[in-house]
Design a protein that fits this description.
mainly alpha; Serine Threonine Protein Phosphatase 5, Tetratricopeptide repeat; 18 helices; 4 domains
Length: about 375
């Protein structure tokens, strides 16, 4: 049998194993979705009710009930919709939609009683810490604290929640949000230590806040005037960078900003222009998916130009025009080093960057 034939057989077998939901249920769900999409929410709720009654699988029945409750809320019958959501939320044992229903109910409560709604949101986080709804609820609670009492109130509440949530699935979120409030309150050394603790307790690859925690810790080190230590933390973050030998990328959002910050720290805080140039060239070589690689080469050329090494500066600009023929820096590089315009370049015809040459960029000269 060919691979294509085997694939067809496999798909047929999978299809034969799919649950049979019943024709009445499928028709009712389709009718409900059509009505909801057309804005006929009361009609959608009735169709979802019919789908729940005809469902052959318990999970399908609960889902239809959940959608019916949301449709009733949209139709204006908030009291009935909320009552049905509460019934789903309070199911024992909880079902697949209990956490989402509890979150929806808390948000509805908050419309009329903010204090009570925030208490219900906290209860969602405590009851369903492993669910996405629990995480969202906790963030809304903390933001509510910020709105009512600022970061000090949020920090006090997070300190209260730490013994109850700190060892569970939401522990890293509680710790990270706590570190952020310490930073906002200007308790810099404590914030740095708290961010480092998040990275230590919830390390890569499972720690959801590992990269963010290290990046924020480096910012706190910079505030403390500990520039070498700030760079060391960023290098620690970058040490977890992986490469892909197949389709895809392991590039994570904090990597590019981390390496650019290293260059900035070397240049502006430590006055080590050679290290800054090295970091910028690393950026060009390593951050293959970044849209800022041409910026890095332009900045590197600027530093060489400032130090009187025009030859190397022009080498870097030649590299820029070759690898990034559509970059906004191309006409500036052509003007600065008498380079040929790349074939089929879509770059502007005239240099319209903040400055026309790397040297002028360094002195703040404008067009």
């Amino acid at each position: 049998m060919t691979r294509a034939g085997a694939a067809v057989v496999a798909l047929a077998l999978l299809a034969s194993c799919a649950p049979h939901r019943g024709d009445d249920h499928v028709r009712s769900m389709a009718a409900a979705r059509r009505a909801y999409g057309a804005g006929r929410f009361a009609q959608a709720a009735e169709a979802y009710d019919a789908a729940a009654k005809s469902a052959k699988l318990p999970r399908d029945a609960v889902f239809a009930r959940y959608e019916a409750a949301l449709a009733r809320v949209r139709a204006g019958d908030v009291e009935l919709g909320a009552s049905e959501l509460r019934a789903i939320a309070s199911a024992a044992p909880p079902n697949d939609y209990s956490a989402a229903a509890a979150l929806d109910v808390a948000r509805l409560t908050r419309r009329v009683d903010d204090t009570r709604g925030l208490r219900e949101l906290e209860d969602v986080a405590l009851r369903f810490p492993a669910s996405g709804a629990g995480k969202v609820a906790l963030l809304e609670v903390v933001r509510g604290d910020d709105a009512s009492g600022g970061p000090a109130a949020a920090l006090a509440h997070l300190d209260q929640l730490t013994p109850r949530l700190g060892a569970g699935p939401l522990g890293d979120l509680v710790a990270y949000e706590r570190a952020k409030r310490l930073s906002e309150l200007g308790r810099t050394a404590e914030a740095r230590d708290a961010f480092r603790e998040v990275a230590r307790r919830w390390p890569y690859p499972k720690g959801a806040y590992f990269d963010d925690a290290l990046f924020r810790a480096s910012e706190e080190e910079e505030k403390l005037g500990r520039f070498q230590e700030a760079i060391a933390v960023l290098e620690e973050l970058l040490s977890y960078r992986e490469t892909s030998d197949v389709i895809g990328s392991y590039q994570r959002p904090r990597f590019s900003p981390a390496l650019l910050r290293i260059a900035d720290l070397y240049e502006t805080k430590l006055g080590d222009r050679a290290k800054a140039r090295e970091a910028l060239h690393r950026f060009y070589l390593e951050m293959k998916t970044s849209v800022h690689r041409d910026d890095a080469l332009w900045r590197e050329a600027r530093l060489f130009q400032q130090d009187g090494d025009r030859e190397t500066a022009c080498d870097r600009l030649a590299l820029l025009t070759r690898d990034f023929p559509d970059s906004r820096y191309v006409p500036c590089a052509i003007d600065a080093c008498k380079l040929a315009r790349p074939a089929r370049s879509r770059a502007p015809q005239a240099c319209r960057t903040r400055s026309k040459t790397p040297a002028a960029d360094a002195t703040g000269t404008t067009d």
